[in-house]
Amino acid sequence: MKYLYGPVPSRRLGLSLGIDLIPYKICSFNCIYCECGETTKLTNKRKEFKPVNSIIEELDNYLSTKPELDYITFSGSGEPTLYKNIGKIIEFLKNKYPEYDLALLTNSSLLTDRQVRKEIKKLDLIVPSLDSVIEKNFQKINRPHEDIKLAEIIDSLIEFGKVFDGKIYLEVFIVPGVNDTLEEFKRLNKIVEKMNPDRVQLNTLDRPGVVDWIEPASEETLKNAAEIIGKKAEIIGQYSSNIEKMSINSKIREEIIETLKRRPCTVKDLSNILGLHVNEVNKYLRELDKDYEFKITNEKRGRFYFLAEEE
Ligand code: SF4
Asked: Which atom, in ligand 1's list, is nearest to the CA of 78?
């Protein structure tokens, strides 16, 4: 499949079929924790990056086999709402396959655009990110396109929260030393009260991010944040369940180990070699990280993973 990947079992979405509408690695942010690597094209301009009819055709072919799915999810290796015709795809799915629930993982940056809000309003679940409500921390973590303004994102999240009929799980990625202060959590909570999402999911680093200095937040920090936010808060990330483990294919796992013993590769290299989506590759790397010690180097082409022979 060219545009679809999975279905992938995930804790948040159950069995989810991914739709990736954006070429690697175009995004409106360049987050320091991005598992897909550095953004190579930073933009806030929407475009039909891939022909909408081909995407619809692939979806139609796949869904006509009536697969069992909990969600069809717009996600991938860049910001899905940058895709200009996401609304057409949602229309198609809602008309022809109304039995499936649709989800969107978004960095929230384009929710400031009324047209985007209109196109995504029929979704069943939106997981928007809001890592910091303080400008300097937002800049440090998300490194957005220069035209993107945090205050406008916050306003649009609050507005959208009032009119959206589906569920909203707000995601907050906590970076120690940046957005882990009491002040940050209290200010975030004020926004949460106005926005009224169904859940607030607190996440932290699982695997090395784009920069060297980023570390996972401690369980204590995540619990402190959860306490301030109250009963809607939920801790995910490295403390989450073993659901991903259940979807590990031992042959693919071995293939990745053998490849990384032979030569250092980026996530994108592994994706090309194995014909897997980058999100799938990341899932395997997360799993292998528990048993192996990767040698990691940052080079011009991105982050390289390598496994020394004796391991
Ligand atoms: S918004 Fe998502 S895809 Fe874009 S840089 Fe951040 S983590 Fe990566």
From this structure: 3
